[in-house]
Design a protein that fits this description.
heterodimer, A: about 325 residues, alpha/beta, Rossmann fold, Hypothetical Protein Tm841, Chain: A,domain 3, 2 domains, 6-stranded mixed sheet, globular, B: about 210 residues, mainly alpha, Serine Threonine Protein Phosphatase 5, Tetratricopeptide repeat, about 70% helix, about 0% strand
């Protein structure tokens, strides 16, 4: 049986969405002439500033283009649903936002994204634009800590891009922007849980099977299988299970400061996210870790998947400054 | 000795696109088990774009190299994903392997075929046994070369390639993925055929039929 979606044509879904986004946010966003899948910030890119290009597959809205704007990313390259953009729109983004100080490519660590962004970086070099890449690898469930570089990038992108965008907006050097981006990644840990599948607009078939009383801990944001299939538990038990893994790795000490992101994978409502967030606060209070800021809502979704992810971003003075730096994007504002 | 001209290559891309549309849902289902369920969509989209782009060329005034480069670029820009760079590199390397030729003989086609496999391997930085499309492409390229060397001609060479690709794809069921999206699954990828290897079999079969029938 096909899933129900409000679409016209599955093959046109991404482009029609982009038309709608540009119609809704003309003050923040525009596309590059002749390259409709290259979305750039109206305010932000400027001479002498390191350009920040993010991107990835569609279906994760508001990631990635919702985080394009002054103080955060300068541009986002848009792929098909769950598929990396090809090199051309990425290259057009780099050209559009290059201010002569270098361009940073930041995206989640997936084989397809790496190949396409690397090809775009090679093409940019031929146009005398120096590109450096910082991959996000925040998904604790996707590889052991010793193999952190093999991990996927998921909702923690939010904090990692935020730190890098702030560094770029503060006109720091290319080296400094790259260093801060990498450090933000090292300080970010995410765990996800999925309750029910999503379906691609082109197939309208559930992309995995899961029992009506089951959940999958550690599932990826494209429905990649996780680390354990279990009976559905209570919100506190689920939050504990995710938090235990994160805290194990982050190893905070009393007095540490973190930022928290409780993110819906698509159809899980705010009510459930806030119930989880209540538990996060209790647990962090218990171990003397203070919460500098929290975000609860849809930040990195997986179409209509039910489930949530929990991200902790461990702050030091520098990362707190970057987090508090103002930004004004189509779908996110801070400071 | 077969002679393959540009028009025949145009027909080959049409045949691959048709085969990929027919195979789309099976490939998505295979990908749903160990990946993100979009592989069939990407392959259908890519080969449809390649088919349309090469059909728009003036076949009489286009050499195989230009045709293959056109296919590569259109595939890449339609798809992105992993299959985009991998198949685009395959066709660009194939294009380089037959540079300067106006028509292709048996050895040219096998050289093109082997260059495609090498391109996929280089772009994906993958070796055999990692549960990827290279587990179908590498043995297929090897088998085609051996068959040609033993005097089998194009039909026999591509026949051998098809058989080797099928066996290679089948063998991925017993492999633990160490490259690509499924590599995060570890042991849980065991028992399932790699969707990239499965689609490689479909591509190779469609090429064989289009170039030898």
């Amino acid at each position: 049986m096909q899933t129900k979606k409000i679409i016209n044509d599955g093959n046109r879904a991404v482009d029609e969405m982009l038309e709608g986004i540009l119609a809704a946010h003309p003050r923040h966003l525009k596309s590059v002439d002749g390259s409709p899948r290259s979305i750039i910030a109206r305010d932000g890119p400027r001479l002498g500033k390191v350009g920040l290009v993010i991107g990835g597959g569609s279906g994760h809205e508001p990631s990635f283009l919702g985080f394009v704007g002054k103080g955060l990313a300068d541009a986002a390259a848009i792929g098909n649903v769950f598929a990396s953009p090809p090199p051309d729109p990425i290259l057009e983004c780099a050209k559009a936002v290059s201010g002569g100080a270098g361009v940073l490519f930041m995206y989640g660590n997936y084989a397809g994204d790496v190949m396409n962004f690397d090809m775009a970086a090679e093409m940019a070099a031929m146009d005398d634009i120096e590109v450096r890449t910082v991959l996000s690898t925040d998904d604790v469930a996707s590889a052991p800590l010793g193999d952190r570089h093999k991990r996927r990038g998921v909702a923690g992108n939010f904090f990692i891009f935020k730190a890098a965008g702030a560094a770029c907006d503060r006109m720091l050097s290319f080296d400094e922007c790259e260093r801060i981006a990498g450090k933000a990644n090292d300080h970010t840990f995410t765990m996800g849980v999925a309750l029910s599948p999503c379906s691609l607009p082109q197939t309208r078939r559930p992309n995995f099977e899961i029992g009506s009383d089951e959940m999958e801990i550690g599932m990826g944001i494209h429905g990649e299988p996780g680390i354990a299939r279990e009976k559905l538990k209570t919100a506190d038990e689920i939050t504990d299970e995710m938090l235990d893994r994160i805290l194990d790795e982050m190893a905070p000490t009393r007095g540490d400061k973190v930022a928290v992101l409780v993110n819906s994978l698509g159809s899980t409502p705010l009510m459930e996210l806030y119930i989880m967030n209540r538990r996060v606060k209790q647990r962090l209070d218990d171990i003397g870790v203070s919460i500098h800021a929290s975000w609860v809502g849809n930040y990195c979704t997986s179409l209509e998947m039910a489930g949530a992810s929990l991200t902790l971003h461990r702050l030091d003075g520098e990362l707190q400054t970057m987090l508090d730096h103002p930004c004004d994007c189509a779908m996110f504002r801070a400071g | 000795m077969t002679t393959i001209d540009t028009a025949r290559l145009v027909a080959m891309f049409a045949a691959i696109a048709t085969a990929m549309s027919a195979d789309r849902d099976r490939l998505c289902a295979l990908d749903g088990v160990i990946g993100d369920a979009d592989h069939g969509i990407a392959m259908e989209l890519g080969f449809s774009a390649a088919r349309d782009a090469v059909a728009a060329l003036d076949a009489g005034a286009t050499d195989p190299t230009t045709l293959l480069n056109t296919a590569a670029k259109s595939f890449l820009n339609a798809v992105g994903a992993s299959s985009g760079p991998l198949y685009a590199t395959a066709f660009m390397r194939g294009a380089a392997a037959v540079k300067g030729k106006t028509t292709l003989d048996d050895a040219d086609v096998v050289a093109l075929f082997q260059a495609m496999a090498k391109g996929i391997q280089d772009r994906g930085k993958s070796v055999s046994g990692e549960k990827t499309m290279i587990d179908a492409w590498a043995p297929a390229a090897h088998a085609a070369g051996e068959a040609l060397a033993s005097g089998k001609g194009l039909a026999g060479s591509l026949e051998a390639a098809g058989q080797a690709a099928k066996a290679g794809a089948e063998a991925t069921k017993a492999m633990v993925a160490t490259k690509g999206r499924a590599s995060r699954l570890g042991e849980r990828s065991l028992g399932h055929m790699d969707p990239g290897a499965a689609s490689a079999v479909t591509v190779i079969e469609a090429m064989r039929i289009a170039l030898t029938s």
